[in-house]
Every structure is written in C-alpha cells, then in structure tokens.
Protein 1
Amino acid sequence: MGRTLARGFNIVLAIGALVAVGVGLPPAHAARPIVIGVIAGLSGVNSVVAPAVVQSAALAVDEINAKGGVLGQKIEMATFDDNSGPDGAVKAFNTAIYQRKVNVIIAMETSAARNAGAPIAERAKVPFIYTSFYEGHACGKYLFVNAWVPEQVVPPTINYMDERYKAKRWFAVGSDYAFGRGMIAAAEAFIKQHGGTVVGEEFNPLDQSDWTPILSKVRGAHPDAIIYSTSGGAPNIDLMKQYRAAGFKLPVGSLSIDELTAQKAGQAAQGVYYAADYFTTLDNPENKRFLAAMKRKFGEKLLTPNDLSEPEYDGVYAYAMAVQQAKSTAAEAVIQALPKVAFKGPRGVVQMNKQHHAPLPMYLAQVQADGSSKIIKSYGLVDPGNQCPTLK
Amino acid sequence: MTQFLDIVTFAGELFIVAIGLLLVFGILKIINLAHGAFLVVGSYATVVATRLNWDPWLALLVALAVGIALGALVERSVLRPIAARPLDTILATWGLNIVIVQLITLYFGRQMQFAKSAITGAVTLGGLTYSEYRLILLLIAVAVGAMVTVVMRTTQMGLIARAVIMNEELAQGLGINTRLVRFVTFCLGAGLASLAGALLTPLVSVHPLMGVPWLINAFMLVLVAGVSLGSLAVATLLLGGAQVLVSSYGNPVLGGLTIVILSVVILRFRTPA
C-alpha cells in the first residue's frame, strides 16, 4: 500500500514538473530577449564596488527597455559573481555562456578574473566588453575595453605630484597580481623617464590585509612620495588606514582608488591624489540626468557611482548601439560595429576605436577630509596609446 | 626599532587570538574549530555597533558579551551531549564553524565591511612614530594574558581549573563539578575569540572568511605551546617574529606561511615531554 502511494506520488511529481517546464517556456512567437551577462566580484576584494556596477547595468537595461529595447527585443540582465578571482571567473563565464546563453558579457572584474575569463569568451565567440580600468595590453578579437589604462592616469598623477611636492624619490607599493604589478611597472617607467628615482618597490599578496612590514620598509627608505596600486576596492582602504595609523605624512598617489572606495575610506584616504575619467561632480547634462535616474531607481540603496561602475552603464549602451547598427546580435556583426559606435554618456563621448580601447577625458582629483573627491585639474581627451597593435 | 615594535605588536595580535583556543584546549581537551567563527562574530559585532553609531570601546564589550552568550549556547546544545567523544567534537565544531560563517554571509552578504576605530592616530616616542592602536592592542593582549594567569594562579576557580587540566577524572572524584568548569571555560574561550575579532577590525577589513587564516595560525601556536600561557607567549613572539622578519626581508607571500611551516618543523623534532 505504502509503495503504491509512493509511486502515485512520484507520477504526480513528474506531471507537475512537466507542467512547470511547459509554463516556463516562452510562447513561440515572442522575440527572445537579448541577454547581457554582468560578471563582477560581488565577494572578495572587489565587493566594495561590484554592487555599484550591477546598479549601473540595471539602469541602462531599464532605460533601453523603456524605449522599446533593441531591434524590437527586450534586454535582460543576468548577474554572476566571480569572487574577484580566476577560479570564480572561470565558473562565472562558463555558466553565463553555456548555461545562461548570454549574447554578450559586460563586466567589471579584477585583472586576475579577466585573464581567466577572457579566453573562455574568446573561444565561445561571445563579445566581451570590459568596463574596469586596468594595467593595459589585454587584447582579443572579441574583447573591448571602455575604461582607462596606465597611459591615461600615470602621467597626470606623477607629473602633478612632481610639480607640487618636488617628488623625485618615489616608493612604489602594490598588490601582487597582474593589475598591481602592471600599474607599478608603468608608473616606475614613467618616473625614471622623467628624472625621478624609485627608492623601493614592495608587493603584498592580494588576500593579505596586513601592510605593516611594507610600511616599515617605506619608512626606512625615506622617499619624497608614494605611488601605490592595490586592486580596486577594499585593499585601498586597508592600506590607507594602516598608512595613516602609522603616522606617515608623505604625499600619496593612488592608481587604484575610486570615488566610492574613497568615500568608504573616509578620513583615512584624505589627501590622496588619483586620476580618473568619471566623478559624480562632472558638470554636464548627461551626468546630471544619469545621477538623477540612479537616485530615482535605487533611492536610499544607491551606491555612489564611480569610475569603476559608471563605464558599465556606457558599456550596455555601446552594445545596444552596436546591435542596432549591425541589425543583428550575431557576434561577428556586433564586433564589427562596436568600434564604430560612440555613446555620449556621463563621461562624455566614449568610442572604443583605438585598438579596442577608448580615448577618455581624464581628471586629477584629491580626496577630501570627508572622503569626497575634489577635481583639481582637467586634462581633456587622453589617448590610450598603443594597447593592441595587431587590432584595428 | 620599528621592526621590533612590528614583532611585539603582531605577537600581541596572535596571542589574543590564540588564548581562547588554548583555554578550551587545556580544560575541555578539544580543539575548538569554531574558534575562527567566534572571531568573525566578534568582528561583525563591531560592524553592527558602527552602524548603530555606538562608541568603538563599547563595541568591544558587546563583542565579548555576544561571544560568551554564543559560547554558552553552543556548549549546552552541541558540545555537552558529545563531550565523551573527542573526535566527534572536532567534527561538530568544524560543522558549527561552517554554519556560523554561512549565517553571517546570508545576513551581511559576502562583501567586505568596515568598522569605526576607537583610535586612528600615531604616537611619537623618542623620535619614533608608531601606530597608536597597535601599541594599545599589545597592552590589551598583555593585560588579558596577565588577568588569565592571575585567575589561574591565585583564585579558587583557577585552582579548580588547574586540577581539571591535570586530571579530570581525579578532580571529579574529589567532588569538583567538572561540567561547570567546562561550561565556564568554553564561554570564556568563545568570548575571548569574539573580543579578538573585535580588536582586529581596525587593522583589517571584515568579511565572512576572515577567521580562517587566524584560526590556522592560532591552532598551530596552541599545538606548539601546549596548555601553558607562558609558552604561548613565547611561541607567538618567536613564530610571529619570524613571520614579520620573513615578510620584511623575504616577501609577504612566504611570510604568510612562516608560522605554519615552523610549527610543523617544531612538532616534528620536539621530543615528547
């Protein structure tokens, strides 16, 4: 009796499952939505900024859908956590591409995660728009970048600190992975070209939040100024907190902080100089409209948009424009169109037409006592230089 | 000189993290693998206190209280029923560690959090500038160590505890309520773990998995030190000092492994007492 009952129950379950699947399928005549894979470090070192990236993408998707979508199709967004590292990125890219069948990946990630994920997108022939500033020279037929590279931030930061503080003897501090190493290498090359010396260079593992031994070495080297590059997000705060607590008064240039992280760091980051292509205080109609729309959509939950999160918004628009121009979501057509479209957004007109990279308007800012960022100099449109000579 | 301060303050951090584990190991004869989770709970207690705009010093007491309460709950509901099966307690505390960390992740998310620090400045002593907070942390570690030592040496409670450490069955035979001793010790151990977590928050960012490296280091130190507070202090100074030196003269990646590697080497070559 018990067994018959169990079997009966199994049959009911099976029918239930079939019905559920049937209901879940979209009706055949409705256009399949275009799926955008948003991959970001929702856990790990990038977790301070990653939620702001998801917010940027969500607003762009909403706005585009409100205007009727692209080619009559709605856009959908699927979010994946890459745990800010390569292992997580491999999982996230595989899930996004092979299970969720995304049409494009528009992602802000650590360089470690990007280096692991990009080959997967390349093999699967899925366009990948990378929206995080990074150390440069990541190239691929399907890889496009709409954020800054060292050529766009190193000269403004170093030149300004040199003029202002006569900084000749530099100490370089970084996180021990592709981005930290790449940024510090670019900074050191620039310092040496311009008559400065690097009196010390130290790297800390990405997951190590204690900077004490490195700060002790900085003290021993008696530099004029410090240039550092951790990853984006939390490590900036750890380093600056410990730097302040150790009583240093030297000027600091950062190649990895952003407006939101500076705000979270509060007083610890006071005085830090950094160059970026986006600030909430940018005075242009597109930025004002963007910020107002973000406030309307997220209210109290809004995380301060910053130069790591805003490019995600531009990236979604650039993809939508490329699909519109290509009249197709086919990857080959989209990557042909991507360098040709120019989106006028909060940062100004951004076009990924320089070997899959973008000339960007750059500014130098200094973090204030309350954690806000004050723009002190504007550099106009700065070219990314030769990032991928084999690409157009 | 700065290096010397780096070593003693780092040893202070290690000591305050490991002392709770050592107490529990001495009296309950178990390695409490949930120690790391208790530490994380203490850190999040300060994060919550920051959100509520409480004074950072008050947050330390809150963390201690939360830890003790959690310890009481765990001892009564999980450990007491399986006290006679030491191997099972290791599994149980490890499982508990996972459950607590997952609950924290569910509520707070995986992102890193930051708590307000009571002290952010630096002090200058004889031309040497050093982080004020690290020095105070060292003082707190010394004070906690001294307090526990005094309690163990001079009070009735300490005498009973020492009796339980030496021979639990004999102590029981003499009419000592060993069950109560175990309970109090575990609460205290959990409380100290949470306090350590709270004390670390001004130095490191808080996230659900932050307890793991501390647990591993503390575990190794306790294995090396045995059940004596004095040898724990020596072990933290020697092994912590080695880590600081390797990080400074070698590189920080290798530094992170120093304590674990040295502990294994020491355990391998130490003649059983």
Protein 2
Amino acid sequence: MENNRILDIENLVVRFETDDGIVRAVNGLSLQLEKGHSIGLVGETGAGKTTTALSILRLVPDPPGVVECEKLSLDGRDIISMPIKELEQIRGKDVSMIFQDPMTALNPVFTVGEQIAESIFLHEDVSRAEATRRAIDMLELVGIPGERANEYPHQFSGGMKQRVVIAIALACHPKLLIADEPTTALDVTIQAQMLDLIRSLREKYSTSLIMITHDLGIVAEICDEVAVMYAGSIIEKGTLEDVFNRTKHPYTEGLFNSIPNLNDRKAMLTPIQGFTPDPTDLPSGCAFWPRCPYACEVCKKEQKDIRISDTHYVRCSRYEEKDFRINRKEIS
Amino acid sequence: MARYIIRRLLLMIPVLICVSFVVFFLMDLAPGDIVSQMAPADATPEQIEMLREEMGLNGSVLQRYGRYLWNLLHGDMGTSLSLKRPVMEVFIERLPATLKLAFASIVIALLISIPLGIAAATHHRTWLDGSSVVLSMISVSMPAFWLGLLLIFAFSYKIKLFPSGGSGSFKYLILPALTLGTEQAGNLTRITRSSMLDVIRQDYLRTARAKGVSEKQVIRKHALKNALIPIITVLGSTLGNAFGGAVAIETVFAWPGIGRLTVAAINSRDMTLATGCIIMFTLMLNLTLLIVDIAYAYVDPRVKARYSK
C-alpha cells in the first residue's frame, strides 16, 4: 500500500510570520494520493490550497513562510529533509506544477521554446538541440504550431500561454502534476479545452494529478477523489461519489447549495453565511463553527475526524452523535 | 528598427540647434569678452574694434549667431578664439582622455554595483541589504571632488602608490577612474537592487524554480535579464554624463579631458570653443541614449516588437 502512494502528507502546518501577525495558512493537513489517481482540492480563496501545493515542491517563500510536518514524501522519498540539489532534480521532473495565472507565469524575455526546452535540458541527458526539438514536439502536443517556438509570451493569447505552461509542466512526463486553478484566469470557452488537454495528457503519461480549484464542476469532470479544504485543513475527503452524493460536512453542503441551478434560473442562490475566518485569528475548535448552521457547544472546543467508510471521512465532531444528519439528501 | 534609428538621428538636429542657441546667448550675456582680454592694454577703441571684426565678433548677437549656425550647418564649428585652432581639432585631441576615463569608471561602477545590487535584493532586509543601501547613499551624496582629494591624500601623498594628477600610463588612470566609478556605483547599486527586488517577486521566477532551475540560475538568468531595463537606462545617462560632466574630477586630477577644456573655454569667454564643446557633448549624450534605446530591444522582446511596428 505504502509503495503505491505517489504522495503522502502527514500533519502539514504552514504559517507565514509577518509583521502583522502569524498567518496560519495550512493547519494540520494530511493527504494521501495513490499512483495514477487524481484528487481535487476544493475550497474558497484563502483556504490554503495553493500553499499546500507549494509545500509539496518546497516553494513556500521562506521567510516569511515556515513549513512543518510529520511526513511529506513523494513517491517514497522524503521531501522535507531533502538537500536542495536533489530537490531541484525532482522539481519539474517527478513533480511539476501548472500555475494559476498564465499571464504572469511565463518569463517575458525568453521564447516559449526556450522555456520548455530548459526543463527538458535540465532533467534529461540530452543536447540543447535535442531539448529544443522536444520542446517543439511538446508545443504541438498542446495544440500550438511548432514554428511558434521562437515567439515570446507577449505574442500569445491567455489560453495559448496556459497551453505553454502546461507544456512546460508536462515536458518531462512528471509522476505527479499539480494544477493550481489552471482555468480560473481563462475564458469559459477555453476552460473546457484546457481540461480536455490535461485529461488526455494525463491518460497518455499516466500522471497522478492534484487539481486545485474552487469549481466543483471541474472536479466532477476529471477527478477520482475530492478533498474539501477549509481554513487550512481538509474537512471532508472521499471519492467523487462519497463527497458529491453522500455529502457529510456542513461546509461541503454549503458549497453545493451555492452552485447556481441551471434548471431553475430564477431560484435564489443560497450562499454560506458569513466570511472565511481571518487566518491570523482562527476560531477555536472547528474553524467553521461561526458560520455553521449545525454548530453546537462541542464544535467550539474540538474537531474530530470521523470515518464514514473506507474511502470517506469527515472532520466534524457532530457525527459522533449517532443520528446526526445534514439537510442535504443523499443521492444514490 | 532602421527607420526608428534614422528618425531618432534626424530628431537630434533640432535638439542640437536649440542647445547651440541657448549656449550662444548665455555666453553673450556673461560679463566680459575675449576681445578686451586679448587686446594689448594700451589699445585704442579703434584697434579693439578692428580686432573684434578680425575675430568675427562684430555685429549684434543675432547676426553672430546666424553666421555661427550657417557655418555649423556646413559642418564647420569655427576656430577657437583663445587657442587659434579649429574647435573640432582641439576637441578630438582631448576626446580620448575623456573616453578612457568614462569607460574605466563605468567598468569599476558595474563591477561594484551589479553584484552588490543583486546580493542586496536576494538578501532583502538583512545586514547586507542595509549596508548596501547605506554605502550607495554615501557614494551618491559624497561630492566627487572631495572623494578625489581624499584618495589623493591617501594614495599619492601618504602612500606614494599613484600619481596625484596628469595623464600618461595606466597608473594615472586609477585614482580618477576610482573616484568617478565610486560615484556612479551608488546610483547603479540602488537601481539594480530595486529593479531586482521588483523582479524577484514575479510569478515567472516561481515557474522557473518549479521547473527545477537552480537558485543561482533563477537569479542570474531569469531575474537579471528582466531587471536590466532600468539598469541600462541609468547606465546610459551615467555614461553620457561621464563624457562631459566629469568636470570636477578632471580638474582635481588635472585630467586633460573635455570637461576641463569646456570650463577653460567658458572662463576665457572663448565663444566658439565653449559652444562647440557643448554641442559635441550634447551629440554624444544623445547618441548614448539612442544606443540605450536600441539595447532595450535586445534585452526585452516586447520593446523590439514596438520598434518594428
């Protein structure tokens, strides 16, 4: 079982020690991902999704960031104690990342070909010419004509730039791909293309995937598993079926209720009341209790992980009560 | 690109005419004139008038400027009134010394400022960053002639290592170049640091790190090339200033360059030489700025795209 895990995170804590106080971005997050699987990391802005992803690559800016965890291993190798030289060999080779904003993710003074080839040249034992040739192949694979390799990022549209970013990330066929809101900055029409692209490339190279998004629709489309994040920890995790059809956590319920209903366009949205908590001053106990319609005294003091099934768990103390149910109906 | 360069070169003509006009009239407004300085003490007013006519200084200031401009447009900068030699010839004679000093000082300035600026930016808010800020402030605020005097005191008076002035072998170049270079390094360090700080926060450096590029390469390759634009801007004006503006340093070190020549020409009310020197200085400054703009295109493809439109 252990060897089959591409990623194993145990009790990850990330905080940013700033002049205005300590920002607690990730608080005791544990996450395991099997090889070849894909997981969606869902949550509102500021839930710590990107910080979690950056921790896996050890790219959290330090200072002010402080990363602590019991275990963070990638394909069986410990990331936290790894010397920086070894880490550089892993970045872009074993694990790579697609960033949220393609407009700023590419270096404006190098051609896109150079930027893709750099990754190949760094990680594989090839000549520069060979790296450039493979960069052109990569470009064509993501649907950009190879002769545009000599052009600069400013000559590409947003969607094209994101294709280039994807090409960079996949250039060395990583074992794990982290896609950090790869479609958020793009037009809706381009979103579907990007998702198709990521899905087909993932199938081609059997890459494991962490899809970070706040869009449950995207998760439903390309993930096997879902982890819902709130205030820096995972509050519900399970297979697509578990989380979508047998929703357990009140926050997950709130997320589903906030999705516009296309069949009834006049229906009012039911947003989650209140705001995400200030990460410099998190509530005690379960961080969601001030906004939770089911909160009771015990929630203010503690939160417990409750296992619902082999694949499904929820971090909500109220499930200790035998007959506790949320309003959302189970869909079978 | 070629069209852009030609347009810029043509635009220099009105600039040069304006500069010559301003300099010519300011010189005319200054009290004293070269004729009364050069005429013998017992010369009669008629003799002075004759001398004035001989030197081409008769007529109103507009008439004289008209004649000067006419000659200038024909490529003739006239004859120096005090040295009795063609202005161009005198200028060309002094040019190598100034160029030598300018380039030597820029090399020193770059060797200090680029590594220091980068180190300050990558060690933001540490003692290294703090001391680079203090050092560049000191170097910018310290009058160059004073630093020059200190260096002379230390290295040619106390320790007899370098000559205190004049020109000749490489040894003569060191103290003036060091003085000028230190002054320029202050500004360049500041701009390198702030420009790098700006670039270091950019997302594309994170992309580079995520690709597995080593930190050294991230800074030297990915960040520095992006940070170069403001650095080149300052470098251009610094170099331009060094061509004609190192007057104080040339004076302190008795360096036979254009700066000293110009000051001497102004002091002796040598209208043609002073105006000629300033026009040539303007031309050199403009050419430097043009080279800077061309250099942008090689550093930043976005600028290049603008030129080709």
